[in-house]
Design goal:
By secondary structure, the chain is α/β, with parallel strands linked by helices. About 25% of the residues lie in helices and about 20% in strands. The chain is globular and about 40 Å long.
Length: about 180
């Protein structure tokens, strides 16, 4: 309970924020693409899919994780729904790579221009191959990072995948 006698709740997002609340590089990418989206900024970081889903008030599956891997040393971005995990072997097969592993924080920042926890699906520092797991299409709207751990934006998954230049694939781990 708060001192006012009312139950405490999760921190509410700030009102719909202008795109300027997004990371400047991402705001620029949105403008270049002609996309107008509602960027929500939260007082607490939403670095994990679970934190983002709780802050937004959506299901974990409606969160887009933007994950960087190194396939034979070459960065690749995988867009995955928040309730699933990437099957690295399926990514390896999809790319015809010898070895695929999660990228470290330095490679993520070098490749995308963003820190882990705030990587958006597009608007990156370098052009990177992008794979989007088919399960993202199960939702009418998905939420992704807007370049910082404090910001997210909604978009229909087909538009998000198109602007990311992603190939739709099946690369999630089977449910256990």
């Amino acid at each position: 309970m708060s001192t006012s006698g009312t139950p405490e709740t999760s921190p509410a997002p700030q009102p719909a924020a202008p795109v300027s609340q997004a990371h400047p590089r991402f705001a620029e990418a949105l403008a270049e693409l002609g996309l107008q989206v509602e960027v929500r900024r939260f007082p607490d970081a939403t670095r994990t899919a679970a934190e983002a889903a709780a802050a937004v008030g959506c299901s974990l599956g409606e969160i887009v994780k933007s994950l960087v891997f190194a396939a034979d040393g070459v960065p690749v971005l995988v867009l995955m729904d928040g309730s699933s995990r990437v099957d690295v072997e399926l990514v390896r097969r999809e790319l015809g790579a010898g070895k695929v592993k999660r990228a470290d924080a330095d490679l993520v920042r070098e490749t995308t221009g963003y820190a882990i926890g705030g990587v958006p699906p597009f608007g990156h520092a370098t052009r990177t191959r992008v794979l989007a797991d088919r399960r993202l299409l199960d939702h009418p709207v998905v939420w992704a990072a807007a370049g910082t751990p404090h910001t997210v934006f909604p978009l229909d998954p087909k538009t998000l995948i198109a602007h990311a230049g992603a190939t739709v694939v099946d690369v999630r781990e089977p449910a256990k």
